[in-house]
Amino acid sequence: MTDDGEVRVPSWSMAFRFCVASVPEVRAHVRNAVTAWGCDADLVGDAELVAAELAANAVLHGQAPGWELFTVRLVPGASGLTVEVDDGSPQLPKLVRHGENDEGGRGLLIIEALSQRWGADLRAGSGKRTWALLTMRVHR
């Protein structure tokens, strides 16, 4: 902990295969990392859910030639915890309101509800980074 009370922890990242089985792996690894940092249960749950939704989008829409893996990154900072996912698609995600009987398409709505803000940026070379900023709370 710094003199001003801020808790500093290193960032975390891991690469995963573009397959549905990677989504629960992402959840487990993110849960373990955020828990190890001493964050409260609400943030742990929010981080694992947001990371899983971003990972699911990468699996469904993010594979491109030359991209064998997508990367999940957790970046703690003064303004909160940023959850990032890099994938191979240049297509930026769009928030779409789906009908009540639609079976899917609500992941970005969940991300929007749980985060301070979220967005996506094209990466130099190829692909994109989709991210969400969560309020970081740490037990003392």
Overview of the structural elements:
With 140 residues, the chain is an alpha+beta fold. It has one domain (12-95, 104-134): Histidine kinase-like ATPase, C-terminal domain (Heat Shock Protein 90, 2-Layer Sandwich), CATH 3.30.565. The protein is 31% helix and 26% strand. The chain contains three helices and five strands. It has helices at residues 22-36, 41-61, 107-114, and strands at residues 12-17, 69-77, 80-87, 117-122, 128-134. A hairpin with a 2-residue loop joins strand 2 (69-77) and strand 3 (80-87).
Beta-strand residue fraction: 25-35%
Radius of gyration: 15 Å
- Largest pleated sheet: 5 strands, antiparallel
Large-scale geometry: globular
Structural class: alpha+beta
The succession of helices and strands, N to C, reads: EHHEEHEE
CATH architecture: 2-Layer Sandwich
- Per the CATH scheme, the topology name is Heat Shock Protein 90
Number of distinct beta strands: 5
